[in-house]
């Protein structure tokens, strides 16, 4: 197998591994609050929103040390161990206990930081400036296929149900735990890249994969990775991209946890309100897959920069927010177990609700594929610290959003996303223009030799 084929194989395996793990985790997140609402008349007194707030809060803090962990352990083993913790979190729902639920939330927050830092490193190691856009799109499309499969099952299994029984819950979460473990095992198929470099040639992103480093060497590398993360945090490009990343954290919270809860709380949807949560997740996934595949293909043509894709993303999201504002009752995110009979500015429409799910997924793929692409391009030599900062900002904003989702009415949640999204788009444009100018200058230098 040629080096390029080997790299593409690694990207595909990486995508499939994440697809299985997040088929389980994202489906879990999408239905968690609904399942927990049906448990709260028992001895269980947890909150899905609070759990997610803990996860993303710990996730954000753990990103400070995750580059060092990946430097010591290596990206492959880091992803395997992290995948095990994802599986344990999902397994808690088979027989929920409040203490286990919140404890698992802490551990998965740490695991998530390590997993995504290792993923960013693996993506960058297996890409160059000509393939980073394609590979980001391929990975994102495979990852977001996870939203399709798990939610398809929820749609059919919960059709016509207004209450989720103990048997329904156990069946779903046993299946999701097994699926997560399958994705974890797939990480072992990723092949190392040490042999793709010429003898004596070094690459800082590639060196992290070595297994033969001495303990002292690994500790030195860990400290260097931590210092590099701090240094990069204060660069102009990272500070500007942090606004865009903050927006992706807020809208991630909304489409992965809040919007499904809103749909499940609308009594006017009748007996389909619970199965519509699954259908909503499916169409979010369709939007994500379409966006990831389409923008991966477009990236091959240099005439299409990253800015038009991000512009499409913010326009699509603003349309979705407008429709949701008109379609969903204002108290839907914080409605009690009985749901809400309120209406917004129109009688709640299932068709509009599902259209908005698709638009949320499509817009999210626009932002995330381009952020992955520009980070891989700008920081090809420092991929682990750069992706750790990306996930730090995204996760801390997601944690804040999950926290205020317990209290804020729908209109205020939408307003926050509109404001942050607007400024995040402007800051991304600024960084992309500078990156394009640097690339043009580099090409000009090469052509003059």
TrEMBL record:
<feature type="transmembrane region" description="Helical">
    <location>
        <begin position="100"/>
        <end position="118"/>
    </location>
</feature>
<feature type="transmembrane region" description="Helical">
    <location>
        <begin position="138"/>
        <end position="158"/>
    </location>
</feature>
<feature type="transmembrane region" description="Helical">
    <location>
        <begin position="309"/>
        <end position="328"/>
    </location>
</feature>
<feature type="transmembrane region" description="Helical">
    <location>
        <begin position="386"/>
        <end position="404"/>
    </location>
</feature>
<comment type="similarity">
    <text>Belongs to the unc-93 family.</text>
</comment>
<feature type="transmembrane region" description="Helical">
    <location>
        <begin position="410"/>
        <end position="431"/>
    </location>
</feature>
<dbReference type="Pfam" id="PF05978">
    <property type="entry name" value="UNC-93"/>
</dbReference>
<feature type="transmembrane region" description="Helical">
    <location>
        <begin position="170"/>
        <end position="190"/>
    </location>
</feature>
<protein>
    <recommendedName>
        <fullName>UNC93-like protein MFSD11</fullName>
    </recommendedName>
</protein>
<feature type="transmembrane region" description="Helical">
    <location>
        <begin position="46"/>
        <end position="65"/>
    </location>
</feature>
<dbReference type="InterPro" id="IPR036259">
    <property type="entry name" value="MFS_trans_sf"/>
</dbReference>
<feature type="transmembrane region" description="Helical">
    <location>
        <begin position="276"/>
        <end position="297"/>
    </location>
</feature>
<keyword id="KW-1133">Transmembrane helix</keyword>
<keyword id="KW-0812">Transmembrane</keyword>
<feature type="transmembrane region" description="Helical">
    <location>
        <begin position="7"/>
        <end position="26"/>
    </location>
</feature>
<keyword id="KW-0472">Membrane</keyword>
<dbReference type="GO" id="GO:0016020">
    <property type="term" value="C:membrane"/>
</dbReference>
<keyword id="KW-0325">Glycoprotein</keyword>
<dbReference type="InterPro" id="IPR010291">
    <property type="entry name" value="Ion_channel_UNC-93"/>
</dbReference>
<feature type="transmembrane region" description="Helical">
    <location>
        <begin position="238"/>
        <end position="256"/>
    </location>
</feature>
<dbReference type="InterPro" id="IPR051617">
    <property type="entry name" value="UNC-93-like_regulator"/>
</dbReference>
């Amino acid at each position: 197998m040629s080096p390029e084929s080997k790299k593409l194989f690694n990207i595909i395996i990486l995508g499939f591994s994440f697809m299985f793990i997040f088929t389980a985790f994202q489906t879990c997140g999408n239905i968690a609050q609904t399942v927990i609402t049906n448990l709260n008349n028992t001895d269980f007194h947890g909150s899905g929103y609070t759990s997610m707030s803990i996860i993303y809060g710990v996730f954000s803090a753990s990103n400070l040390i995750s580059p060092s962990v990946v430097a010591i352990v290596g990206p492959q083993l880091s992803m395997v161990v992290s995948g095990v913790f994802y599986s344990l979190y999902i397994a808690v729902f088979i027989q929920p206990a409040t203490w286990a639920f919140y404890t698992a939330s802490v551990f998965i927050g740490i695991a998530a930081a390590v997993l995504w830092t290792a993923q960013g490193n693996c993506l960058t190691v297996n890409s160059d400036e000509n393939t980073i856009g394609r590979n980001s799109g391929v990975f994102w499309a495979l990852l977001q296929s996870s939203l399709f499969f798990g939610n398809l099952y929820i749609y059919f299994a919960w059709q016509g149900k207004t209450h989720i029984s103990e048997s329904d819950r156990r069946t779903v979460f046993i299946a999701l735990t097994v699926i997560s473990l399958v994705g974890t095992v797939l990480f072992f198929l990723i092949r190392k890249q040490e042999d793709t470099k010429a003898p004596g040639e070094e690459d800082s992103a590639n060196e992290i994969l070595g297994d033969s480093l001495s303990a002292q060497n690994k500790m030195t590398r860990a400290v260097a990775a931590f210092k590099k993360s701090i240094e990069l945090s204060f660069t102009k490009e990272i500070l500007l991209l942090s606004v865009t990343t903050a927006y992706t954290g807020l809208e991630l919270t909304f489409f992965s946890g809040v919007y499904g809860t809103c749909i499940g709380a609308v009594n006017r949807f009748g007996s389909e309100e619970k199965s519509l949560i699954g259908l909503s997740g499916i169409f979010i996934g369709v939007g994500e897959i379409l966006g990831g595949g389409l923008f991966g293909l477009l990236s091959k043509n240099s005439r299409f920069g990253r800015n038009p894709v991000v512009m499409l993303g913010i326009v699509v999201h603003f349309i979705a927010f407008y429709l949701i504002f008109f379609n969903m009752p204002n108290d839907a995110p914080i409605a009690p177990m009985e749901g809400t009979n309120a209406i917004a500015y129109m009688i709640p429409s299932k068709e509009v609700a599902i259209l908005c799910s698709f638009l949320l997924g499509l817009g999210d793929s626009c932002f995330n594929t381009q952020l992955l692409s520009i980070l891989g391009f700008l920081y090809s030599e420092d991929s682990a610290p750069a992706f750790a900062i990306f996930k730090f900002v995204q996760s801390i904003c997601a944690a804040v959003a999950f926290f205020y989702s317990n209290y804020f009415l729908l209109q205020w949640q939408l307003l926050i996303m509109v404001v942050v999204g607007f400024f995040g788009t402007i800051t991304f444009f600024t960084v992309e223009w500078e990156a394009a100018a640097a690339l043009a200058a580099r090409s000009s230098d090469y052509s003059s030799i």
